[in-house]
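Researcher: Re-running this chain for the archive, since the previous output was lost when a drive failed. Same request as before.
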Amino acid sequence: MHEAIAPCNGSQGIEPVSGVGSDALNGYCTCQPFAPFRCLKPAMKSCPPEPPTPDELGALLRLLDDETPEVRAHVTARLAHCGGDISEWLSTHSRILSDAEKKLLAEMLSPPRRETLTREWIVPTGGASALQEDWESFESLLRILSDFLHDGISLRQPLSDALDLLAEEAAEECVTTASELRDFLFTESRLAPSPSNYYDPSNSDLAWCIEAGTSNPLGLCLIFILVGNRLNLEIEGVNFPGHFMCRIYEDGFPLIVDCFDRGRTHLQSTLLESPELSSLQRQLLRQSVGPGTILLRLLNNLSEALNKSGRSMDAQLIHELRATIE
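Model: Regenerated C-alpha cells:
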C-alpha cells in the first residue's frame, strides 16, 4: 500500500532551511509562503511556478545583456511566467532600456502571449457565420489579438477602453450622426492612413492604431464602426476587394466612406456606374458584411503581414486560428 500524498496546506511537514538555493529546492513544493521553510512533500503539479516578484524582475532585467546560454535560458524561463506583459511594472521602473534590450525583452515575452492567445481564442459554434451579428464577441476576439500583437513592454490602454474614450470624446463634441463621426475621426486627423506601413502587423492591433493615430483601410474602418456602435450609429462594412470601406446613409441615400482617404465620401450610385467595375465588384459594393466576414479578412491580412515581417511562427498560429472560424 502506498500512502496518498495530501496537498501542502502550509501547516505540516515543514522544516527550517538556511541558505536555500534553487538546487536545494529542486523536487519540493515551493508554494509555501512562510520562507525560510520548505514543504517536505514532493512538488505537486498543482503548484506551478510563481511569477517573478518585482525585485526578481529587476534582477532579470540586469541580466538581459548576459549572453551566457544558461543565464539566457533562466531569464527567458522566468519571464515566461509573466503572462507576456510587464508594461505596468516597467512604467514604475527607473531604468531606461536600450533599443536592443527592448527588442530582446519583447522577443522573450512573445511565447507566453502566443500561449495566451491560443488559450483564450474561443469562437461560437458555427464559426464566422455565427459571428455575423455578434459584435460583442467579435470585439472580444479583436482585444485578444491586440494583446497578442502588443510588445508587452509599452504601457497603453486596452482596446475596449481606447474605443470607449474615443466615443466619449465624440459625444462631448456633440457627434450625433455617422457623418459627424466621420469628420471627427478622419477630417480632423485623429486617425490617418499609413501608406508607408501598409503591411505592418500592428495595423491589426487596434489599440496600437488608436494610440498611433494611423492604420490601413481595414483598421481605420473597424475603429469607425466600433466607435459608431457605442454611439448607436448605423455604419456598415463594405468588403470591397483590396480596399475595405464603409457605408453610411444621409437623407436615405447610401454613401461609401473611404476611411483610408481621410473619410472621403462617394455616392454609391455614382460608383456603381463606373465602367471600370466588374459585376462582382458592383455586387460587393452593394452588400454589407458582418463581423464574421470581417474577422476572416483581418486574419488573412495579419497572417500575410506576419510572414512579410519574418514572423513565420506567429503567422502559422494566426492561420490555425483562422481555420477555427471557416
